[in-house]
Amino acid sequence: MLNDLNTKNNNFFLKIKKDFFLRKLIHLSKIAAPNKINNKLSFINIFSDEDDIIFSATNETTEINIIVKKNNDNILDFSNGAVSISCKELIEVINTIPNEVITISVFDNVVLEITEKTSTYRLNISENNNIQKITLEKEDFSFKIKTTQLINLISQTTYINTIKDNISNSLLVNIESSENNIIASVISKYRMAKKQIKLDNYNFQDNKNFKIAISIKAINDILKILDNNKEIINLNVSISNKKIFFYTKDIIISLTLSNSNFSDIKLKNDYSSTLTIKNQSLSEEIKGLCIMSNRKVKMEVTKDIITFSTDTDSEYFGKRILESNSNDSKKFIFNGDKVEIEFDGFFVLETLKNFKTDENVNIFFNGYNKPFLIKNLDNDSFHLIAPIIAV
Fold first, then answer.
1. Three-state SS for 185?
2. In terms of residue numbers, what domain contains 277?
């Protein structure tokens, strides 16, 4: 089948600059799901309409269209048509080609041929009768957001979905609007993370606020696409009854909303004790003990001294002390009743990564071995952590 193409009809061809094409494929590969016929391979689609050439990929929650105008300098020639092809195999072939320009041809919807000056490569293609362009649905809400803001909103909440936290991709991200703010929150068995960002020149009216829930897997697909993609600076956001769309003139990303209800997370305002300390100082004290004690760290806080220690019953014992009259980098301020608490050091260290190294953080306590809250001084990043309680 792959050898004799002389009698085959040419259904589609595309002449394109290699590096440009490869960048598009790499973006698509980050979310492409295994094909239903061949579960070992993830497939992407290439198709054209009257105005555009579209590169697309889908999985169970996410769909992406990368749109390239036919007059783009990287597109040298083309014909109308469509093809569905293994993303991995296509990238492997493109990576071996030394020349700057390649031609892709499809024959009888069975074989894809890739040619350049000195070589020819042929791949079997997948039958896909559902290749179509994403259509924006009738919107209930819309706004604009900077890419950096969206990345911060996602990364500073979804980080609690880790293997060490024993969480699956069924976890939900709750997203809501309030006045000129967008707020995202994630809650798990042991932790909660909440991040708030302020939109420029936009204000949600009281009767036009939204509350939606999205699977953590779907929202992380956005990070995979936007991370290190400096070409996308601002995004339009449109929310319909079933989907949320992030788009520019060159890309459309569609996420399916979860059928589960939005979880309205309220934080307490009354805490009995407050600790203000440098992020770097707190991280340094916890890090060494966390390794020795298999993550478990005990902390005792008074007005003058903070004592960090490992479990006295463990094989290794360690103890570190901070004094309130230490030098500037180690200084802290504590108000309230004495605190004793045991916690997972990894959870705290991971939380502190969301703040600047030289930034002060506030920690709010509410008694012996009760959940405690860590937040920054700007009051836009909140992280609740459950203590370790001996059984």
1. strand
2. 273-385
Task: In whole angstroms, give the CA distance from residue 255 to residue 200.
Answer: 24
* 270-281 residues labelled b (16+ CB within 10 A) or e (exposed): ebebbbebbbbb
Residue 280 contacts by C-beta under 8 Å, 6 or more apart in sequence? 329, 357, 358
Q: Are strands 120-124 and 211-215 parallel, antiparallel or unpaired?
A: unpaired
- The β-bridge partners of 198 are 181
- Is the distance from CB of 120 to CB of 103 less than 8 angstroms? no
**Any alpha helices (H) in the chain, and if so which ranges?**
18-29, 87-96, 147-158, 216-226, 279-292, 345-352
325 within domain boundaries:
yes
Which one, of 91, 196, 100, 211, lies nearest residue 153 by Cα? 196
Is 116 domain-assigned?
yes
Q: CA 101 to CA 119: how far, in whole Å?
A: 12
| C-alpha to C-alpha distance for 391 and 124, rounded to whole angstroms | 59
Tens of pLDDT, residue by residue over 111-168, are 889 998 888 999 888 765 566 778 878 788 889 999 999 999 999 999 887 655 444 5
Q: CA torsion sign, 28 to 260 to 159 to 346?
A: negative
- Positive or negative torsion for Cα 57, 20, 80, 54: positive
Instruction: Please indicate, yes or no, if residue 266 is contained in any of the structural domains.
Output: no
